[in-house]
Amino acid sequence: MLSLRQRAWISGGLSALVSLAIGILLLYSFLNQREADRFDRALIERHTQVVVALSYAAKDPSRLAELLFDPQYQTPFSGRYWQVTSQAGQSFASGSLLGASLPGGDIAPTGLVLRDASNPDIEAVRIAAQRITLEDGSSWVVAVAESLAQLQADRRDLRQSLGAAFALVAVIGLASVLFQTAAILRPLDRLRRDVARRWDRDEPLSAADYPEEVAPLVGDINTLLTRNREIVSRSRRQAADLAHALKTPSAILRNELTVLAEGAQDMSKALDALDRVDAQLARSLARLRTANTCETVQAKTDLSHSIQRFQRLFGMMAERDGKLLSVACEPGLAVRMDAQDIEEVLGNLLDNALKWSRKRLALTARRRKGAIELVIEDDGPGIPESDRAEAVRSGARLDTSKPGTGLGLAIASDLLQAYGAALVLEDSAALGGLAARITLPARPAGDVQDPG
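Structure (tokenized):
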């Protein structure tokens, strides 16, 4: 489906070119006719000159060459000719004919006739011929001719001039279409930007800020924004209520199992099963939350601020376990994700790295090719390459020697995929263990939500 901008460009460009072509054709037809009329008027004037000269030299037609001063009449086959023929059939002609005769130049009606003609002696010409009767009663056929080559050359020059004018005007017209399209669609572009900005600020759009044709759409968008905001809020609230409702009985069961375990009963399998139930519930609730929010909310989070908080929290946890967490984060990083979702991803991956690291783990955040790259790595045993896809997809526990559900990577992957981000597991070149590399959609550095 073509965009409105493309439709405007194509339709405007085609209509401009068609209108221009029709205009150029009409103009060419008009100018071409004017050129032909000018040619005929000049021919008629020369015919009149020959008639006047003949009236003075009727008794001695050989003097006509002296009375007609145009040098082209004396240049052989110059393209300009005259010829007079008496009633007795005697002909007198310009020197330019060089003994030849005009085609049909000795036959003409009493009215002036213009026609095109040619013969083997001369090129194609246009002839003005008329039979006249002088005051002395003598009858003559007076004919003058002009080569059509000059008319054709004039027409060729006219076509070239109009072609150049058409190309110039076409370029100007197409540029005008582009500018006009940009001017017409500017309010829609502004509306698109304002929708995202007003969503973030929880402000309605003002119909007075847009043209009257767009104003009704603004009211509909305000209604949709309000409804979507309510849907998002209700969905997140329901997910939170469901999580709270499930956590209470889960906590009760965990306490009861712990009491039984303290009474010398083996509750490890039950506790492990309960851990997996909690993790699966957390994964399902995360999917439910992102399914109802990530596509509709124009979320934005100050990633640098979140990383600073996690650095303090996990730094203390690592120090307690005799490990070292190193963090390298560029300032002013912002991502298109809800704060709760990105922090859940960070928490799961850092918890996983802390659990499996031997002495060191690291977090790196930086801008890279229009996006933001997060790398969380450790010096632990890592995950074999053949098992990495399964670990991210299903959350299966690949090693039961440490506590946990194995769903941390899967939950992080679900959340990231919902926002169009990517999680890749690979070997850590710096620490030798596992590296979790995340590519996140970025936001402009100046468009960061206030963390307070």
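The two ends are 43 Å apart (CA to CA). The longest helix spans residues 148-201.
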